[in-house]
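ligand=iron/sulfur cluster
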Amino acid sequence: MVRETKTTASTYTHAGGLMRQYPQLALAVLLVEGGVLGGDALRSRIELEVLRPDGARLEELDPHDSRTVDRARALLRELVADWAADRGYQAAPSSGTDCRACDVHGWCATGRERTKTVDGAA
Ligand code: SF4
């Protein structure tokens, strides 16, 4: 079993479903379906526990359901398409990204260069 736990005050669920909202669930589906994690794969499942102020909700994904596996594979293929096609590997955040708020800004050359341009100092 793989369990992902999230806390939120929102009742919002992405229109594309749980795997689009939390792509790590799609990855977990494929890892379990492929037997990568070991153990008894036939008894395995993916769980999402969402903790809200008014209680908890538990969702389950069956890694042996062919439609779930197909959706997981299609979603991950879509999400990694740009990365897989990239041959330059230049860090290039989308416009509007504030590099100053990024956790790795301190050692990211691109981020430091961007903020130097904007602020006049790194
Ligand atoms: S600091 Fe670097 S890693 Fe962070 S958003 Fe900017 S370019 Fe990306």
